[in-house]
UniProtKB/TrEMBL annotation:
One of its GO terms (molecular function) is nucleic acid binding. InterPro entries: GAG-pre-integrase_dom, Integrase_cat-core, Retrotran_Ty1/copia-like, RNaseH-like_sf, RNaseH_sf, SH3_retrovirus. This is Integrase catalytic domain-containing protein. It comes from the Eukaryota. It comes from Mucuna pruriens (Velvet bean). PROSITE patterns: INTEGRASE. One of its GO terms (biological process) is DNA integration. Residues 49-229 form the Integrase catalytic domain. SUPFAM superfamilies: Ribonuclease H-like. Pfam families: gag_pre-integrs (PF13976), rve (PF00665), SH3_retrovirus (PF25597).
């Protein structure tokens, strides 16, 4: 141990190399015992084993996380709650205004997916945030027979699926904002219909309601496509004139118009007319 101390707490293999070259007088064998100074000064985090097992059925395990957005949405949401089914990797994301809404959002999500699939959530994996360990939340899970799994504090790797999804969401949002894909086959057992998928941010022409115009007024105005409305058969659109989000089904998509603006190498715009079936 003396040469270990003299050489600034050199590691065992280094001492062996010097000993074999006869550079350390009197040292015939390298045998290092426990060195508290080395542990205190050199300790590193333990490596994480790669997880190769997954849930055997949908809803066997749900990864659950809350992350704070850098921007407040137009409807005042500052946080996003994400749920990921471990088996199918299907993702649900809900905007919320405060962390106190996490419990109620989970109950809403639970009711939705259990009714849709006919199965029960068996296990819920989260970190140790206060919104997850609330007494009412824990009591509800116990009553519903949901097993809770928590990661060690300051160890996001143990909730890696949810943490990695946060990164993926942010990367996709950045890409979408600079100018959508789902994993539904395993969930519903059939191929995904991509027919109604459109470019985020592309121009759309929205038809005015008859009450909004006279016979000689234009029949439509130009808006921006944001996504798909919940619980109604319509599209969510941004009206730059009225400065608000509207929902309509009578729209004409001009996706190529957005692409042409980026490439500057096309002179015509292909108009795709889409209507949602009644």
């Amino acid at each position: 141990m003396m040469w270990h101390h003299r050489l600034g707490h050199m590691f065992k293999q280094g001492l062996k190399v010097l000993m074999e070259r006869n550079l350390l007088p009197g040292l015939k064998e390298v045998s290092l015992t426990f060195c508290e100074h080395c542990v205190i000064s050199k300790q590193h985090k333990l490596k994480f084993a790669r997880v190769t097992t997954k849930g055997k059925h949908i809803l066997d395990l749900i990864h659950f996380n809350v992350w704070e957005s850098l921007e407040i949405s137009m409807e005042g949401a500052k946080y996003f709650v994400s749920f990921i089914d471990d088996y199918s990797r299907r993702l649900w994301v809900y905007p919320i205004k405060t962390k106190s809404s996490v419990f109620s959002q989970f109950k809403e999500f639970k009711a939705q997916v259990e009714l849709e699939t006919g199965r029960k959530i068996k296990c819920l994996r989260t970190d140790n945030g206060g919104e997850y360990v609330d007494g009412e939340f824990l009591a509800f899970c116990k009553q519903e027979g949901i097993v809770r799994q928590f990661s060690v504090p300051h160890t996001p790797q143990q909730n890696g699926v949810a943490e990695r999804m946060n990164r993926t969401l942010l990367e996709r949002i950045r890409a979408m904002l600079r100018i959508v894909e789902t994993l539904m086959e395993m969930w519903k057992g059939k191929l995904v219909d991509y027919f109604s998928l459109h470019l985020f941010g592309c121009p759309v022409y929205v038809m005015y309601n008859s009450q909004e115009r006279t016979k000689l007024d234009p029949k439509s105005r130009k808006c921006i496509f944001l996504g798909y409305a919940d619980n109604v058969k319509g599209y969510r659109l941004w009206d730059p004139t009225a400065h608000k989000v509207i929902v309509s089904r009578n729209v004409v998509f001009a996706e190529n118009e957005l692409q042409n603006e980026q490439t500057n190498n096309s002179t015509t715009t292909s108009i795709i007319i889409m209507h949602i079936q009644d």
